[in-house]
Amino acid sequence: MISNPSRTSNSPEEFAKSYVRRVTEILSRLDIEAVANVIRLFLETRAMDSTIFLAGNGGSAATALHFANDLGFGASPEGHKPFRALSLTANSPFLTCLANDIGYENVFSWQLRDLMRPGDLVVGISASGNSPNVVKALDYADANGGVSVAIVGFDGGKMMRIAKHVIHVETDQGEYGPAEDVHMVLDHLISAYLALVPGK
Predict the structure, then answer these.
(1) Which stretches of the chain score pLDDT less than 50?
(2) What backbone torsions phi and psi does residue 116 show, to the nearest 5 degrees?
(3) pLDDT value for 1
(4) pLDDT score recorded for residue 200
(5) Are 132 and 105 a contacting pair, CB within 8 Å?
(6) Per-domain residue ranges of the chain
């Protein structure tokens, strides 16, 4: 949906123009300093040989996977120091085991219990900012020496209040499409910049 769930359009052309205008408007309001700050965090994490973990649900799970792919390949070309990046949505047998045995709200925090080390970065991606399993992952990171980052939409939700670092894609409540569109732009923007910095 766009900004108003009740908005209607008379033609595909009008709808397409309206949708593009809306995404462009949201992009124009993006906090560039917040984006730059997260880029610097990614570079610091690589410099420390630490890992970047990414987590999300639904469309944001796909974004987490895509982001890990772009960090591990596009942002880590031959001759550059590679980024250590892992999406916590990638291991479906383990994910479903945890969901079945200890509850879906624990699927990311339990993986961090097994994998995260102090200094690692945990990036939670959520349009609503309220996904319980991502909230728990950020809480786990903060309580165990990790660094929490939230990439959120809508009003930012709980994740905006608890994460140490936030990129807020401000949209109307329930405006999933544009929020998730801009989250993917952030993936490509961040990864494109990181590919320019070889590292040591």
Answers:
(1) 1-2, 4-6
(2) -75, 140
(3) 45
(4) 80
(5) yes
(6) 40-194
Q: Phi first, then psi: give them for residue 179, nearest 5 degrees.
A: -60, -45
- Report whether 122 contacts 112 (CB < 8 A): yes
- CA torsion through residues 193, 30, 186, 25, sign: negative
Distances (CA, A) of 198 to 77, 79, 83, 104, 113: 8, 7, 10, 38, 31
Q: Tokens for 181? A: 């569109």
**Top-level class of domain 40-194:** alpha beta
pTM of the model: 0.94
